[in-house]
Amino acid sequence: MISSRRQALIFLVALMPLLLLAIITALNIGATGVHLSALWHGVTDPYIRADRIVLLRIRGPRVVMSGLTGAALAVAGAIMQGLFRNPLADPGLIGVSSGAALATACMIVLGGAWLASGSWGVWAIPAAGMCGSFAAAYLLYLFATRGGVTSVSTILLAGVALGAFSGALTGILIFRANDTALRDLTFWTMGSFAGATWSRIGLLCPFLCVAAAVTTRLATPLNALLLGESDARLIGYPVERIKRLAMVAVACAVGPTVSFVGAIGFVGVIVPHLVRLVTGPDHRLVLPGSALLGASLMIVADTLARVIATPSDVPVGIVTAVLGTPVFVWLLSGSHRREVVS
Amino acid sequence: MSLSLQDVVWHAGGKTILHGTSLRFEAGQVTAIVGPNGAGKSTLLRIASGLLSPTSGTVTLQGTELNHLAPERLAAMRSMLTQETVLRARFTLRDLVVMGARVSAPRLTGQERTVLAEDLLGRIGLKHFADRDVMDLSGGERQRAHLARVLMQLEAAVSNKGDAPGFLLLDEPISAQDPARQHLVLDLARAHAGKGGGVVLVLHDLNWAVACADRIVVVQQGTIHAQGLPQDVLTDTLARTVFGLEEGRVQIHERTGKPYILPHDIIFN
Question: A 264-283 residues with CB below 8 A of B?
Answer without folding.
Answer: 280-282
